[in-house]
Amino acid sequence: MDMNIPYTVEERPDTGLTNGKLGIWLFLASEVMLFGALFSTYIILRMGAPEWPHGELNVWLGMANTFILIGSSVTMVMAWASLKLGEWGKHRMYLALTVALSALFLVNKYFEYAAHWAHGELPDKSTFLAIYFTLTGLHGLHILGGIVVMLYFLGPGAKLYKKSPEQFTNRIEYTGLYWHFVDLVWIFLFPVLYLL
Amino acid sequence: MHSDQESIRKTIRTYWMIGAALFVFTGITVAVNQVHLAVPMAITVALIIATMKGSMVASVFMHLSHERKWVYGALILTVIGFAILMLVPSLTINDSIGTPVHVASPAGEHTGH
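Output (structure tokens, whole complex):
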């Protein structure tokens, strides 16, 4: 009996997609709704507030993190493109760079959170801080999840490449789709929380 | 396979260019913020730039510019759901259920009769 998971490499005739690709897009759709609900909450809270704090956050640290995350999106797509070109060494380098940039993002976030903590600026102090910590905390958890997945593909998950390079390439593509979504969320979080 | 690799090589240049454009747009967003525009204008400009950046990430990095119809179908449903979520704040603000339409003021009661 064939126990292989179907349509991991070849596309399904009805959808024209691999199961993994359709799966990751449906997952991302649910993620849009999750962050969408929080953005909607932000709008309600902000419009209902008599005043809204401005200049509470370090814009330059936020901008640095935006550059870091955009850079990680470029290295992630390059990690996938390198695999498509059969350049294993380059793929490893770009994936490791993505992990390093993601970790740098979290280090910056740690310093930002630590500064808030030191000044007693905690989620219970104001509506702004509550929504700030909720949105950036949830986003940070997504970064952490992405790092775990990428480390898996740099470590034990890399063995799949020898057995089935196409399936491994597809897995990196799905990881990339998730990663670009996390970048996309930050692209909106940065102006909404840091600038406006 | 050869043509596939050739097209990937061409796309790689696009990836780097989009990355550079995203860097530039981020710089512009912060620069505009330093000008201290009026709040409605600042929100509009920042969200327009963010939408442009988001579109670049989605269309090029996530390959949405040439995807299968099933992906577009899932995304259309998501867009509808997202639009409803974004409408919730205005529905909340404009909600008049339970709010008295006309409340006579105590002063009016005295002057009216």
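Chain A has one domain: 19-195.
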